[in-house]
Amino acid sequence: MEESRDLLSQERTRVLHLSQAINFLSSLGGLLIEPSTNSILFLVLRARVISSNHV
Questions:
Q1: 19, 43 contact by CB (below 8 A)
Q2: How many domains does the chain have?
């Protein structure tokens, strides 16, 4: 049990870092990621965080 909670917390940290990176990229005006792709990615990441909270 403890091990899976640890993995979940690692995953959450990874998702957080990804969403921060995406936010940073979008603050640059979406030069590297198209805004639409960015939104989709962000929604997918949000969904993963929300679903992992219910585990």
A1: no
A2: 1
**Predicted TM-score (pTM) above 0.70:** no
pLDDT of res. 3: 76
- Count the alpha carbons within 13 Å of 53 in the hemisphere toward its beta carbon: 7
Contact 33, 26 (CB under 8 A): yes
Give every CB contact of residue 46 below 8 A, 6+ residues apart in sequence: 19
Cα–Cα distance for residue pair 17/39, rounded to 1 Å? 16
Please tell me which residue, 17 or 4, carries the higher pLDDT value: 17
What is the overall mean pLDDT for the chain? 77
Range of the domain at 48: 2-53
Three-state SS at 5: helix
